[in-house]
Write a structure and sequence with these properties.
The chain is mainly alpha-helical. Helices cover 61% and strands 5% of the residues. The chain is built from six helices and three strands; from the N terminus they run αααβαβαβα. The chain has a three-stranded parallel beta sheet with strand order 1-2-3. α5 links the parallel β2 and β3.
Length: 183
């Protein structure tokens, strides 16, 4: 008899627990249907801002990287010892500070073979900026992973000079015996 009573007690408790759980199914379905209805009626508002952000972020990154490339100094802007800027490098820094909007007025330097070279390049740029005696706060000078595309001014000058030396002298064509006669 105790076995039957304990079995009956377990059965009643399990039915009671399942009845309590089944009483909540109506609330769950109602909540899901109501939430889905409101979500569908709000469409597309919850998705507009994330979509806009997803479209704008790549352009913001491209814009920032473009200014970084524009204000980038490379190896050919420094003397051989990497501790001083060449005259072209000084002019480049001066142009960056004069032509860049204040929010983009930063100087980036191509990383060297090691930290010592990179730090000496940064020090040379900072010294050139101080020597220019600019007004207001000094712009940031930061090492960059970008690589400068271009050549030194000496190379460009040498190519230009050789080009001009290779141009033949202008000559008029030789005169021929027959000339046009006029009335």
């Amino acid at each position: 008899m105790p076995r039957v009573a304990s079995g009956l007690l377990v059965g009643v408790l399990s039915l009671w627990a399942s009845a309590a759980a089944q009483a909540n199914w109506f609330k769950t379905i109602y909540h899901d249907v109501r939430g889905g209805f409101h979500t569908n009626n709000m469409w597309p508002e919850p998705y507009v801002e994330p979509s806009r952000r997803a479209v704008k972020e790549p352009f913001a990154i491209l814009h920032a990287r473009g200014w970084q490339r524009q204000n980038l100094l490379g190896e050919h802007h420094f003397e051989e010892d990497q501790t001083r800027l060449t005259p072209a490098g000084v002019l480049r820094v001066k142009a960056m500070l004069a032509n860049s909007p204040p929010q983009y007025r930063a100087v980036f330097v191509e990383k060297g073979q090691n930290r010592e070279v990179t730090n000496s390049r940064i020090d040379a740029i900072q010294q050139a900026i101080v020597d220019m005696q600019i007004e207001g706060p000094l712009p940031a000078v930061t090492a960059s992973d970008l690589i400068v595309e271009g050549w030194s001014s000496e190379y460009v000058d040498a190519v230009g000079r050789k080009y001009h030396l290779s141009i033949p002298e202008p000559r008029l064509p030789a005169a021929t015996g027959a000339s046009a006669s006029g009335p």
